[in-house]
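Fresh eyes needed here. Kindly weigh in on this sequence plus structure tokens:
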Amino acid sequence: MDHTKVLRGHCQTAAGMKTSIPCEDIRPVPLTWERRNTNGTLNVQARVQKLSLKLTLAPTASAENPSKPNLQIKYLDTILLTGPDGTPTTGIDADATGFISFPGFPPLPGATINGDGFGGAGPGGRRISLDCEGLALGRDGSFWVSDEYGPYVYKFSRRGRMLQAIQPPAAYLPRRNNTLSFSAASPPIYDPDRIPVPEDPECGRNNNQGFEALTISPDGKKLFVMLQSGMNQEGGPKKRNRKQARLLEYDISGRKQRYVHEYAVTLPTYVDYTEEDPEKATLVASQSEIHYLPTGDLMILARDSGFGHGQSESRSVYRQADIISKSRWTTDIKSYQYDRVNGSIASSTGVLKAGIRPVEYCPFIDYNLASELAKFGLHNGGEQDRFLLNEKWESLALVPVDRRDRRHHKKHEYFLISFSDNDYITQNGRLNFGKFKYADQSGFNLETQALVFHLSL
């Protein structure tokens, strides 16, 4: 495959949201809201929002004459997500013990809410906890959402009611004190001391490292979901060891999903220039999204953390949309040995067990390329201004290029659209349908940013 590293578009908006945009052309597209801001979790009902996008090409943009933002975004509609019984979901951290039960569903992460869930008076109660990350559209108008608390994958109706929940193999489920424990150690903003003991799960997904990525094949038959990084029994939670992430494949062509394959993905690493100890400086670039490609491969968004707009350090060293590819030599690790409770594919330092061959990992598109960013007045590193790239890039979408706009008259040209997550870092935030005012303690206003790349596959 080949590609052109040409940045074609840039947009900034002031939305307090987590974005995940699967689409096949520029038309109304959905995104999901994440569950929290940087100061603690809140009783935010998960939702899908529809947007329309308009891209105006800027082929003459240069560092000397940079283009203004040329991707326009228009809000269209919101779908609020509920449980199977119609009760709103919540973003409050799941309880350390216990769960919510519904017939035909696995044990679901649940949160006990005090008052209104925003620190004020209210009815309290229990709701299903969702930390929405991945989003994919079904062919029947339904949609699938991957979550970090479970980590689970949920199917919702076009009106937002939960229809189905996919529980992964037992090895993925977080456990504390030999018991299922869905808490991510992300206490509510009104109760910052509500931390589970121990704070990190003893096995299973690490806190806030669950099912970050989700994608579905164009024919709607295959669903892929991937952990953000290695589980705690195979390298986590230490950032320098958690490089063996797992990728699951499900057959969703029938009425009930079927678990069919599982693969290891060895994540890339980067050198943290702020770490003085060389032995601790090499860290894992956790992944933030995957997207099914026309070639049958998967695009994967891997990045460093702690660098960018609103962070103490502004220069990122690894933000890339790369490619992972399965071959006949790739090991299918689906087995009782690896999928049982505490089942491990790697050592505590992240070394794969003998005989396991991961998918092939190929570097592809570098978000931090200074010469391309300059064409749109953007930069990586340097001043903390609105043109500095945000820290968290967490979505991928491919849009076929219109025949008239193809640069090399190739059949397989695409626009890659990628959005950032602003983590509710704002000084003028509104939640709870406008009733709750919020100002982040950092003092920053982080706009949601979007980049558009032109590529061929």
